[in-house]
Specification:
The protein is of the alpha+beta class. The chain is built from 24 helices and 26 strands. Among the domains are: 81 residues, Alpha-Beta Plaits (2-Layer Sandwich); 98 residues, Calcium-transporting ATPase, cytoplasmic transduction domain A, CATH 2.70.150.10; 131 residues, 3-Layer(aba) Sandwich (Rossmann fold); 141 residues, Calcium-transporting ATPase, cytoplasmic domain N (3-Layer(aba) Sandwich), CATH 3.40.1110.10. This is P-type Cu(2+) transporter.
């Protein structure tokens, strides 16, 4: 849900500490949603963040943080993407990323002597530590290393909810308490179960450490982007000097030289001139005013090759400068920069939930109390059936431990983090996780034409002189281009660009005048047409003149191809006559110029790739039928909708979504303009080209950071793979519990094995998600 839709709302992101499982997520969300003024809240276990939407002015953020802390979790406002200390990436917020390994090693060091007798027993060795030695080794594991489980479990209990920590605390306390009771009432040390409680805590600590490491890898894409910010920028300052011998009040100062100061990036402002040396990161978004270089934008746009940039071109902060020194005028710095916006979009996508996560949250809300009930029933049932309190208690402990819902809570967010991260690396920003669930259903992709499949910039395709015997083509081209100098019209620019490519020498023109609705007129002062009044105009403006039919016949083949045609007319040697604003009878046609929109490189390959995926392709265009059909046939789309008004594009998408038979189709819309926004919003999956407008990108669930149609198939592929990982992870998470709980209740899993299986389930889920990091777009190779 984008912010533009909620003008009376404010959005915040909180870092939440202390969450351990899906039940924690549910608990924090419930606490947030109970706060007056909070309209929506989404908590993510993998990112350890909460995304909150509140009614503007209803409640202050410190109050929200305080209320979250009362539920037993840490909370603080997350740093904005653009404020992350120049080059310093955010680190994993979980404490296990820092001192977790030491706790794990200490836990296994203390637990090893306790577990050794069980390991050597199959080899024929029957040995165990004295009971009080076992007590001495297990106690620091239970109450020092394991204290965090008691603390978090108590807080969740006081809040009227349960979580993984409560299950671990109850299970290990039962095993430890039973062992202590047996130790104090009997001398039979082989009946003690201190090793079970110690190993369980050590295994859970190991699982949390492995989770933290895996989470860190899933967010590598964001950290790589955050590291692109240089710490300083070389800001140019002009120095002045007074004329020699003048006093302080006489003469005028003159610019002596440009010197730069190395300033922290936070002190750079829009409008500052920034000097960038070869090999340096560009610190700001801006426009080049001096220098030429090749810019590596791979981590920002996924573009595999450096892009040539010269004066007037825009550059993106975070890109790597190549071989040339540049001076750039800053346009956007910090949180306003493109890099910051990319990071924010990816972070928001990773914080949001896919709709399937709602089912997981519903299950998690009742999971812990259900497990505790099952553990009690297991204990009572085994006690009555086996008449053994110790065995009954151990099996109940095993149920509590195996059922910890860590894997369930991590299954969806871990896959989303990994999938959106690797997609961003290749220039595909998945902003709305809902598209992950819809992408595997897509059977139609609808393209806008102009700016999406075509460059959106006309070029001169055909140049036809009327009489080659009388006129030199180079003279005609040079004269026509000279008439257009200074014009901002796209066709004028196309004609000038073509003339430059043909190395035509432009000439001076006098009495230039734009004729609204007709064209441009002027008098060359040199060349073949010197002192002749010439006009470039549309053919329709010649209707009713003697030459109209002749010109129309020559232009018709170009019209049939959907091209725009202009004609150069010679109005005769009338430099001393007032320029007319209507067509004149003495006009002589000199040449025709046919203009068309150029296909983007890769448009045909993009359509071919989609067809290989079994997807039907259509093109929606406002152009005339001939022009649209020509483009559609050139790239091979299955169906063309032409002469579609912008307001009708959304209706076409709705028609595609439900065919005549009433069957549902899932449609993706690809566009780049303001007029595409309604269609992008109503499509099942909207993809916007970042080369287009901000409105289109806000309306779309996916933004393609390059104007490359080939990214469409790549975006669908990575979305499908991410969705498959979500399904696989949920299957394994539910399978571990579904199989593990009955096995533990029947005595096939000891508490120690249950703890190991629980840790293994979380590790498997995260490792499976990380396999997405091996994905590469197909068309790159």
């Amino acid at each position: 849900m984008n912010q533009a839709e909620h003008t009376n709302s404010e959005f915040f992101t909180l870092d939440i500490g202390g969450m351990t499982c899906a039940s924690c997520v549910s608990r924090v969300e419930k606490a947030l949603l109970k706060i007056p003024g909070v309209e929506a809240a989404s908590v993510n276990l993998a990112t350890e963040q909460a995304r909150i939407r509140i009614q503007r002015g209803s409640i202050k953020l410190p109050e929200i943080i305080s209320l979250v802390q009362k539920t037993g979790y840490e909370a603080k406002e997350s740093a904005p993407a653009g404020n992350i200390g120049q080059g310093e990436a955010k680190t994993t917020k979980s404490l296990w990323a820092s001192d977790g390994l030491g706790r794990v090693l200490l836990g296994f060091l203390l637990s090893a002597p306790l577990a050794l007798p069980m390991l050597i027993m199959p080899l024929g060795f029957h040995w165990s530590l004295p009971g009080w030695w076992q007590f001495a080794l297990a106690t620091p594991v239970q109450f020092v290393l394991g204290w965090r489980f008691y603390k978090a479990g108590y807080q969740s209990l006081m809040a009227g909810a349960g979580n993984m920590d409560l299950l671990v605390a109850l299970g290990t306390s039962a095993a430890y308490g039973l062992s202590l009771y047996l130790l104090m009432s009997s001398s039979h040390t082989h009946e003690l179960y201190f090793e079970g409680s110690a190993i369980i805590i050590s295994m859970v600590l190991l699982g949390k450490w492995l989770e933290a490491r895996a989470k860190k890898q899933t967010s590598e894409a964001i950290r790589a982007l955050q590291k692109l910010w240089p710490e300083h920028a070389k800001v140019l300052r002009q120095t002045f000097e007074l004329p020699s011998g003048s006093g302080s009040g006489s003469g005028s100062a003159s610019i002596k030289s440009d010197q730069y100061r190395d300033l922290p990036l936070s002190q750079v402002l829009p409008g500052d001139r920034v000097f960038i040396l070869p090999g340096e990161r560009i610190p700001v978004d801006g426009i080049i005013i001096s220098g030429t270089s090749h810019i590596d934008e791979a981590l920002l746009t996924g573009e595999s090759e450096p892009v040539k940039k010269c004066i007037g071109n825009q550059v993106i902060g975070g890109a790597l400068n190549g071989e040339g020194a540049l001076i750039v005028v800053a346009q956007a710095v910090g949180i306003e920069s493109v890099l910051s916006q990319i990071i924010r979009l990816v972070e928001e996508a990773q914080t949001q939930k896919a709709p399937i996560q709602k089912l997981v949250d519903q299950v998690s809300a009742i999971f812990v109390p259900t497990v505790i009930l099952l553990a009690v029933l297991t204990g009572i049932g085994n006690w009555l059936y086996l008449d053994s309190v110790s065995i009954a208690l151990l099996r109940a402990v095993s149920v509590l431990v195996i059922a910890c819902p860590c894997a369930l809570g991590l299954a969806t967010p871990a896959a989303i983090m990994a999938g959106t991260g690797i997609a961003a690396k290749f220039g595909i920003l998945i902003k709305d996780p809902q598209v992950l669930e819809l992408s595997h259903c897509l059977d139609i992709v609808a393209f806008d034409k102009t700016g999406t499949l075509t460059a959106g910039k006309p070029r001169l395709i055909h140049f036809l002189p009327f009489d080659l015997a009388l006129n030199n083509p180079n003279d005609i081209l040079a004269t026509a281009a000279s008439l257009q100098l200074g014009s901002e019209h796209p066709l004028a620019k196309a004609l000038i660009d073509y003339a430059k490519d043909q190395q035509a020498l432009l000439i001076s023109v006098t009495n230039n005048m734009a004729l609204p609705g007709i064209g441009v007129e002027g008098i060359p002062i040199s060349g073949f047409f010197a002192n002749h009044r010439l006009r470039i105009q549309s053919i329709n403006s010649l209707e009713g003149t003697p030459e109209f039919q002749r010109i129309l016949e020559k232009a018709q083949p170009y019209f049939d191809q959907g091209q725009t045609v202009s004609v150069l007319m010679d109005l005769g040697s009338h430099a001393d006559v007032v320029i007319a604003t209507t067509a004149v009878d003495v006009a002589i046609p000199v040449a025709l110029f046919a203009f068309g929109d150029e296909l983007k490189p890769g448009s045909t390959q993009a359509v071919t790739a989609l067809k290989a995926l079994g997807i039907r392709t259509v093109m929606i265009s406002g152009d005339n039928l001939a022009a649209a059909t020509r483009v559609g046939q050139a790239i091979g789309v299955d169906e063309v909708f032409a002469q579609i008004m912008p307001s009708k594009k959304a209706e076409i998408i709705q028609q595609l979504q439900t065919n005549i038979a009433g069957n549902k189709h899932y449609v993706a819309m690809i566009g780049d303009g303001v007029n595409d926004a309604p269609a992008l919003a109503i499509a099942d999956v909207g993809m916007a080209m970042s080369t287009g407008t901000d409105v289109a990108m806000q309306a779309a669930g996916i933004t393609l950071m390059r104007g490359d149609p080939g990214l469409v198939a790549d975006a669908i592929e990575i979305s499908k793979k991410t969705w498959n990982k979500i399904r696989q992870n949920l299957f394994w998470a539910f399978a571990f519990n579904t199989i593990g709980i009955p096995m533990a209740a029947l005595g096939y899993l000891s508490p120690m094995l249950a703890g190991s299986a629980m840790a293994l389930s979380s590790f498997c889920v995260l490792s499976n998600a990380l396999l997405l990091k091996r994905w590469h777009p197909r068309h790159y190779f």
